[in-house]
Amino acid sequence: MVVEAHVDHSGEHVITNIINSGSQIPKDVRQKIFQRFVKGITTRGSESGGTGLGLSIAKWAATLHGGSIHVVDDARGVNFEIVLPMHPHLDHDDMQQLESAE
């Protein structure tokens, strides 16, 4: 597994790539795997025992922070790309929650 992170050219987003040397995910399945209880295509003997919630939680968290997660083509293997804003917009209620947590 390889983890890479960098700031995009505009300086407004952090891009993190998590690359696993496993099998590629077919393009027609890529959006479905971010839905709850959906597992990727498995081959015989490759069952992970997962519940199909991990990627949906990752998508929820990224979206909550104003970002996104998706699968990108990469010759090295499966590449999950997470894009998050460098300076997420926090509204007044968010700021109060952060301040009260300190």
UniProtKB/TrEMBL annotation:
Keyword annotations for this protein, in alphabetical order, are: Kinase, Transferase, Two-component regulatory system
What GO molecular function annotation could you give as one example from this UniProt entry? protein histidine kinase activity
Gene3D superfamilies, per the entry: Histidine kinase-like ATPase, C-terminal domain (3.30.565.10)
Single GO biological process annotation from the record = phosphorelay signal transduction system
Is the Membrane keyword given for this protein? no
What InterPro entries does the entry give? HATPase_C_sf, HATPase_dom, His_kinase_dom, Sensor_HK_Regulatory, Sig_transdc_His_kin-like_C
Q: What is this protein called?
A: histidine kinase
This protein's species is Bifidobacterium canis
Taxonomic lineage of the native organism: Bacteria, Bacillati, Actinomycetota, Actinomycetes, Bifidobacteriales
